[in-house]
Amino acid sequence: MSDDPSPAAGSNPDPRSGDDSGAEELTHTTEEGDVQMVDVGDKPDSERRAVAVGEIRLQPSTVEAIREDEIGKGDVLATARVGAVQAVKHTWETIPMCHQIPITNVDTDFELREDRVECEVTVETTGKTGCEMEALEGVTTGLNVVWDMVKAVEKDAEGQYPDTGIENVRVLEKEKRTH
């Protein structure tokens, strides 16, 4: 594999651009190819909202143990909520080129199903850029916390996790309301 980041000869140009180069539309790259944070200073503030979801597949016995508060480490969902909110607040520290935004609200919702825990995180902000990454970080961290809390009961005899998996993480919706 080549270290050259330029598109291969004959490859399709960036469909978002109006020309063949596509370079003018790469918002996180300078003309010289250096990575940069996007300047949002001239954008107007707007109310923004993003909802992300995901799930962790578990053994039914583990889900029942969560439901009955029988996990030795403590209250799984309460701990996962704290982790999700903390992740939302620190997204700018873990995603390169992500702006630190003023979070105005975070809602977390966990649903126990027969063989999985579903997580939904809603993030709201008023600012110059969206909050999709914050919602995604909240979901993935919330689900990682669930895994951490239940890993002792999810392991098989060889110490592996054949029935455990974080899946279907995605942004359900995003809104932008300008004034």
Architecture, according to CATH? 2-Layer Sandwich
CATH fold field value: Alpha-Beta Plaits
**Beta-strand share of residues:** 25-35%
Computed Rg: 20 Å
Using the alpha-carbon principal axes, give the shape. Answer: elongated
Mean model confidence by pLDDT: 85
Quick one: CATH class? Alpha Beta
- What's the count of strands? 4
* Topology as a string of helices (H) and strands (E): EHHHEEHE
Q: Could you say which structural class the secondary elements and strand pairing correspond to? A: alpha+beta
Unreliable stretches covering 5 or more consecutive residues: 1-24
Helical content band: 25-40%
- Number of separate domains: 1
For the largest beta-sheet, the strand count, sense and barrel status come to: 4 strands, antiparallel
- How many H/I helical runs? 4
**Could you give me the name of the CATH homologous superfamily?**
Molybdopterin cofactor biosynthesis C (MoaC) domain
Give the terminus-to-terminus CA distance. 48 Å
Domain Molybdopterin cofactor biosynthesis C (MoaC): 37-176
Enzyme class: lyase
Keywords: Lyase, Molybdenum cofactor biosynthesis
Protein name: Probable cyclic pyranopterin monophosphate synthase
